Amino acid sequence: MTMLFLHLVVDGIVTGCAIGLVAATFAYFYSTSGTFHVAHAGVYTFCGYVAWYCTTWGIPFVPSLLIAMGVGALLGVIIQGLLYARLAQIKASPLVMLIGSIGVLTVLQNLAAIFFTPNIIQFEFPWRIANVELGPIFLSVPQLLILILCPLLYVALLLFSSYTALGRQIRAVASNPELAQITHLRPRRMFIYAIAISSAMVAVPGVLVGIDQAMQPYTSLIILLTAVVAVIAGGIGSLTGAFFMSIALSTIQSVSVLLVSGRWSLAVVFVIFIVFILVRPEGLVKRKFSREL
Amino acid sequence: MPLIAKNLIAGYGGKPVLEKVSFTLEDGEILAFFGHNGAGKSTTLKAVLGLIDTIEGEVILNGENIEKMSVDQRLERGMKLLPEGRGVFPDLSVRENIEVVDAVNRKNGRQMISAPDVYELLPVLAERRSSIAGELSGGQQQMLALGIALLGSPKCLLLEEPSVGLQPDLVENLFSKISEVCKHLRVPAILIEHKIVSALKIADKVMIINSGRLVFNGSKQEAEKIDLWNYF
Ligand SMILES: Nc1ncnc2c1ncn2[C@@H]1O[C@H](COP(=O)(O)OP(=O)(O)OP(=O)(O)O)[C@@H](O)[C@H]1O
Ligand SMILES: [Mg+2]
After folding, report:
1. Is residue A151 part of a domain?
2. For a Cys staple, B88 with which of A170, B5, B46, B133, CB 3.0–4.6 Å?
3. Which atom of ligand 1 is nearest to the CA of B35?
């Protein structure tokens, strides 16, 4: 029983790290541009397919991952340039932007199905099912990679934000877009950088989760839901809140199968969400001066 | 003549708010700009900076007609706006506030005012360098907003109620800084204010707007001879 519990906790943390990076990058772009970019989940899936496709051509893991990240960045830039920037130009409301984003999500899922395959796919790496023993716990190699790479990228994003000129400029745009415009920070260019960075990063959990489990064009919806709940409950716009809330939610969700049937585990997430909204509506980490929702 | 506006007609959604606003400003001159709420002061500044489209009229900066230019092009020519209320990046530290704007300016070559100049001019910012801007007092935030507006090579300052929320002695302090900068750098400034007496002390010219029409436009000496309140 304790072994099972431990196993579930570890599983939850691993999944939480993957979702955490999805949530943190989602929060990053949202706090910069104010766009509720649900198509982020589409980029996540699409990148997984790109990497899988690369491997079918015999390209090794690392280059495949890098190609997927590059394609992710490109997709993000295209979405911002062709859709969000134009909608913003005609002063579309946040609701219209959201609907546009849902449209892109659907398109990306269908493109993945058309370009690649609508069937469940698996990566052919021999190390996919190899196990690593860490004391009492066993992790698969892809799980171990998630556990290392996702938190690392999250920390890298924080460091980038605080300690590089570009990172600070993006934060300035997030903090006061009107002032950013009149101080010549070119907010629209910063939106492009922000979405490129978020999209390249989200490719990593996209590929790794794809390797660890199997992939289907539409599976990202559950990840998206958990990530969005984590972003809101974690305190809108807070990367730290989003990341750690994802881990917490995902761990609770994983452990909940001890008490309720697995089919209800997503409901557990939403119950936590509702409790949070009632008890602490400003979220786990309160941002002092963030933009209004 | 550094800044000239000729018969500006501008407004929102094609509906004019301003009716033929004209004024001229010489190097280093401060124009105090008064008017009741909703009279069109902010609208005038927006038209000068290009944040709204002008329906008719011209804006000339240092001999160049900038009326058709984008906001970015006007910013590149040294127009600076201190916007009403939110003139700082609240999530960033004071140092970061100044650095981001300084870095953008530096890309376009050597600048008249860079970060060290701002700290020298506004020492309170140097003291609070690592504080988060949103946690500064109202007065300190306005100092920072002024510092941000000054960075670069200002050719024209548009200051929108810089004294908002400040106690009287801080207003005098802020205004004397503004005056010092304008005279020292020979930059013209438009100063929108509700604190009329304080603004008059540093003004060279006075302009009063009422429902989109200029009802007074003259030198400070002329303004002092009349009862300004009749024009509101
Ligand atoms: N974004 C806008 N859209 C439509 N009308 C506007 C807009 N902003 C201002 N107006 C209108 O233009 C007129 C002038 O407004 P403006 O903001 O220039 O006044 P102001 O002199 O700056 O007033 P205050 O002292 O209150 O700041 C007002 O009648 C106002 O209703
Ligand atoms: Mg105003």
Report:
1. yes
2. B133
3. 21
d(CA B26, CA A278): 59
What pTM was computed for the model?
Answer: 0.87
Count the domains in chain A.
1
- Spell out the alpha helix ranges (H) of chain B: 41-49, 71-76, 94-106, 115-121, 123-127, 138-150, 168-185, 196-202, 220-225
Whether residue A183 and residue B83 make contact (CB cut-off 8 A), yes or no, is: no
Ligand minimally distant from the alpha carbon of residue B83: 2
Q: Which ligand is nearest to the CA of B36?
A: 1
In-domain check, residue A88: yes
CATH for A191: 1.10.3470
Q: Model ipTM? A: 0.86
Residue partners of A279: CB distance under 8 A and separation at least 6: none
Q: Are the Cβ atoms of B103 and A183 closer than 8 angstroms? A: no
Residue B21 Cβ contacting ligand 1 at under 6 Å: no
Residues B138, B166: contact at Cβ < 8 Å?
yes
Residue A47 lies in a domain: yes
Per residue in B57-75, pLDDT (tens digit) is 889 888 888 888 888 889 8
Q: Which of A175, A178, A186 sits opposite B91 (nearest CB)?
A: A175
Q: Which of B8, B9, B17, B158 to mutate to test ligand 1, by most ligand atoms within 8 A of the CB atom? A: B17
Instruction: Tell me the per-residue pLDDT of A103-155, one tens digit each, with 9 for 90 and over.
Output: 999 999 999 989 888 888 888 888 888 888 887 888 899 999 999 999 999 99
Tens of pLDDT, residue by residue over A168-213, are 999 999 999 999 999 989 899 999 999 999 999 999 999 999 999 8
Surface of A (179-198) touching B: CB under 8 A: 179-186
pLDDT at residue B197 above 90?
A: no
CATH code reported for the domain at B1-77+157-165+188-232: 3.40.50.300
Q: In chain A, which residues have their Cβ closer than 8 Å to the Cβ of B134?
A: 288-289
Q: pLDDT category, A54, cuts 50, 70, 90?
A: very high
Q: Where are the domains of chain B?
A: 1-77+157-165+188-232, 79-154
Confirm whether A289 is domain-assigned: no
Asked whether B188 lines ligand 1 (CB < 6 A), one says no
